[in-house]
Design brief:
mainly alpha
């Protein structure tokens, strides 16, 4: 989220309108549980890795929970997400 509390979403679309979705494409937007981060003045690499792991875990949880809604029952059972 940005400083205004609005999630940042990047959608790539059609010629001359890159922020509009392509014609005929369904877009699913899901909002997960907020992750409350502590304010760390000098975070260590371990701190960053810990909170990154929690963030990625929540992304995967949301994906697994809603993938059948987006892909359908059959394809959703085998769909995978790759997050770095």
């Amino acid at each position: 989220m940005n400083r205004f509390g609005i999630p940042t979403i990047i959608v790539w679309g059609r010629w001359f309108f890159p922020l509009l979705p392509k014609k005929g494409v369904k877009i699913y937007i899901v909002v997960g549980k907020p992750i409350i981060l502590p304010k760390l003045e000098n975070p260590t690499k371990e701190d960053v890795a810990t909170w990154h792991k929690k963030y990625i875990g929540e992304l995967k949880r949301i994906y697994d929970e809603y993938k059948e809604d987006a892909y359908g029952a059959d394809e959703g059972k085998v769909a995978k997400v790759e997050v770095w």
